[in-house]
UniProtKB/TrEMBL annotation:
Taxonomic source organism: Sesamum latifolium
CDD domains (alphabetical): ALDH_F18-19_ProA-GPR
Record-given protein name: Delta-1-pyrroline-5-carboxylate synthase
Alphabetized UniProt keyword annotations: Amino-acid biosynthesis, ATP-binding, Kinase, Multifunctional enzyme, NADP, Nucleotide-binding, Oxidoreductase, Proline biosynthesis, Transferase
GO molecular function, one term: ATP binding
């Protein structure tokens, strides 16, 4: 937080900004002008101008634009015979002379559309050797900025006598990057922004998967580790590295990089796996005791989070998920004790096979490795996930929502303090900065599984941002279908529980499907009245809204996460199944019926992670399933589906015990492939 606060304070003090844009901002890959990017850049500079900032632009691109135009001109003026000859590269200075004119004309046109005036200033390396030039430069720029004019600088490549970049150590500047830095110093700018083709400064080549993005450059830490590589072609950076003379004061003491956290979690997990089952169980029991002993402290921190969220105007559904209700800490501690007393999940022999006489193969359960869990506004999720990681022998990195930062911090501290020193508290890392998530999602060599718990946007964004396997569900659109043969008293109880027990939960009912015959018998109205009595807002599908005169739902694929639901009428069980497949999310769906044949059709055909007969969708939960806890509910069809407990965090490996066998082209070996008892 110190670094974030210091950075915000620094940005507030900024008045004069130098922005340097590279050739690939100005031009496309084919050399033509990138009108969309330039237009966006001009709009952003205009916005800064209106906010009172003084913006100075340093632009590249003239040579590239000129080269494109001169190639076209040469093509028009060439005969067919000329085109058969080897083409001589165009003179760069001629390209610069032609391109500068077109580039500035475009800037002038774009800025004029925004009612902004721009000015062109061309400079050369030798100009800066003249004190009078530098003095006049300052006066001119000061005058332009006072009139809200945007000065646009470029090196005058057409007449510059400077040698190629980095070949002449006597030069004052070598390219537009160094020109921008020189101008920032000369014109006393508060901030210099260099757009680049990478996200910022890395600890090594950006293409190297082991290289890490340096968010804040600290001279004392990074100066000796930086090397300069090839010149970049493009300039479209998105994240960036901050350089500041006081950066060393902002850096948290003992700051650990994303990779370091992941590697430490893996090393600690291997030490955890080496422990006996009883020792791992004792860690969990100690965690449970520590949570109960610190209940007052946990609730106090959680109350502070809830109060801040309410003051910030967060939605009620989020605040509901954020709050640790009375008895929740004890409930979490008890679920951890259930986990501790479970049968040992790691190292279980799942299959034993005699491959050949004296050669035995075993298939064993094994931890996945390191898990990255990203979750929103659910501090209880941190406890469940951490306890499952310990039970399954996995390392863990946790990133919770900022709205639960106090709750997450105290829970993490309590849990890790109960982990013995010979394992190490870095078994479970807490990621506190949102900026670290992109880095973590790149670490497919040290993180084995990502589990996002949160909104559809969160899950979709993470899936699109990483090569690491992702386990989770994007939506929780759960259906309850009330068949014509349903016991209506039972139906009312189940429907009310599925919707109102915890409306913000992903296993809460969002759509109520009702057989068409219940419209005639009045059953639909009874169910709607029961829901409305409990404060539920009712919306209708196309058929229900017409027949029952209720407001039509904006979508049949809507996760309300609140006291609201959609009601729709269907012809029969097969129509209900079709509706669920078309509009559901393959999470949890339920049928209420006394007709067992109809129930079996529903249970067999609905392709969801959990399908129930005469039971509330709210039962789809790791603790209620007897898993002890869950890291989330998966709608994926690979690896784990439904509530993911310990087993969902395990994979398998093979052990073979032989007595000198060799393959040798399979000569002289007789394969028996005989199944053996699991006990040796």
């Amino acid at each position: 937080m110190e670094a974030v606060d210091a950075t915000r304070a620094f940005v507030r003090d900024v008045k004069r900004v130098v922005v340097k844009v590279g050739t690939a901002v100005v031009t496309r890959a084919d050399g033509r002008l990138a009108l969309g990017r330039l237009g966006s850049l001009c709009e952003q500079i205009h916005e800064l101008n209106t906010q009172g900032y003084e913006v100075i632009l340093v632009t590249s691109g003239a040579v590239g634009v000129g080269r494109q135009r001169l190639r076209y001109r040469r093509l028009l003026n060439s005969s067919f015979a000329d085109l058969q000859k080897p083409q001589v590269e165009l003179d760069g200075k001629a390209c610069a002379a032609v391109g500068q004119n077109g580039l500035m004309a475009l800037y002038d046109t774009l800025f004029s559309q925004l009612d902004v005036t721009s000015a062109q200033l061309l400079v050369t390396d030798n100009d800066f050797r003249d004190p009078d030039f530098r003095r006049q430069l300052n006066e001119t720029v000061k005058s332009l900025l006072s009139l809200k004019v945007v000065p646009i600088f470029n090196e005058n490549d057409a007449v510059s006598t400077r040698k190629a970049p980095y070949e002449d150590s006597s030069g004052i500047f070598w390219d537009n990057d160094s020109l921008a830095a020189l101008l920032a110093l000369e014109l006393k700018a508060d901030l210099l922004v260099l757009l680049s083709d990478v996200d910022g400064l890395y600890s090594g080549p950006p293409s190297d998967p082991h290289s890490e993005l340096i968010h804040t450059y600290i001279k004392e830490r990074h100066e000796g580790a930086i090397t300069f590589g090839d010149k970049s072609r493009v300039g479209r950076g998105r994240i960036g590295t901050l350089f500041h003379r006081d950066a060393s004061k902002w850096a948290p003491r003992g700051e650990v990089s994303a990779r370091d956290m992941a590697v430490a979690a893996r090393e600690s997990s291997r030490r955890l796996q080496a422990m006996s089952s009883q020792e791992r169980s004792k860690i969990l029991l100690d965690v449970a005791d520590a949570l109960e002993a610190s209940e007052k402290l946990i609730i106090a921190e959680n109350d502070a989070d809830v109060a801040e969220a309410q003051q910030a105007g967060y939605e009620k559904s989020l605040i509901s998920r954020l709050a640790l209700k009375p008895g929740k800490v004890s409930s979490l501690a008890n679920s951890i004790r259930v986990l501790a007393n479970m049968e040992e999940p790691v190292g279980r022999v799942l299959k034993r096979t005699e491959l050949s006489e004296g050669l035995i193969l075993e298939k064993l359960s094994s931890p996945l490795g390191v898990l990255l869990i990203i979750f929103e506004s659910r501090p209880d999720a941190l406890v469940q996930i951490a306890s499952l990681a310990i039970r399954s022998g996995n390392g863990l990195l946790l990133k919770g929502g900022k709205e639960a930062r106090r709750s997450n911090a105290i829970l993490h501290k309590i849990i890790t303090s109960a982990i013995p020193k010979n394992v190490g508290e870095r078994l479970i890392g807490l990621v506190t900065s949102r900026e670290e998530i992109p880095e973590l999602l790149k670490l497919d060599d040290v993180i084995d599984l990502v589990i996002p718990r949160g909104s559809n946007n969160l899950v979709s964004q993470i899936k699109a941002s990483t090569k690491i396997p992702v386990l989770g569900h994007a939506d929780g659109i759960c259906h309850v279908y009330v068949d014509k043969s349903a016991n209506m008293d039972m139906a009312k109880q189940i429907v009310l529980d599925a919707k109102t027990d915890y409306p913000a939960a992903c296993n809460a009912m969002e759509t109520l499907l009702v057989h068409k015959d219940l419209v005639q018998t009045g059953g639909v109205n009874e169910l709607i009245v029961e829901l409305q009595t409990k404060g539920v807002t009712i919306f209708g599908g196309p058929r229900a809204s017409s027949l029952l005169n209720i407001p039509e739902a904006r979508s049949l694929h809507d996760e309300y996460s609140s006291l609201a639901c959609t009601v729709e009428i269907v012809d029969d069980v097969k129509a209900a199944v079709d509706h669920i497949h078309q509009h559901g999310s393959a999470h949890t769906d339920c049928i209420i019926t006394e007709d067992h044949e109809v129930a079996e059709i529903f249970l067999r055909l609905v392709d969801s992670a959990a399908v129930f007969h005469n039971a509330s969708t709210r039962f789809c939960d790791g603790f209620r399933f007897g898993l002890g806890a869950e890291v989330g509910i998966s709608t994926s069809r690979i690896h784990a589906r439904g509530p993911v407990g310990v087993e969902g965090l395990l994979t398998t490996r093979w052990l073979a015990r032989g007595s000198g066998q060799v393959v040798n082209g399979d000569k002289g070996i007789v394969y028996t492939h005989k199944d053996l008892n699991l006990q040796a």
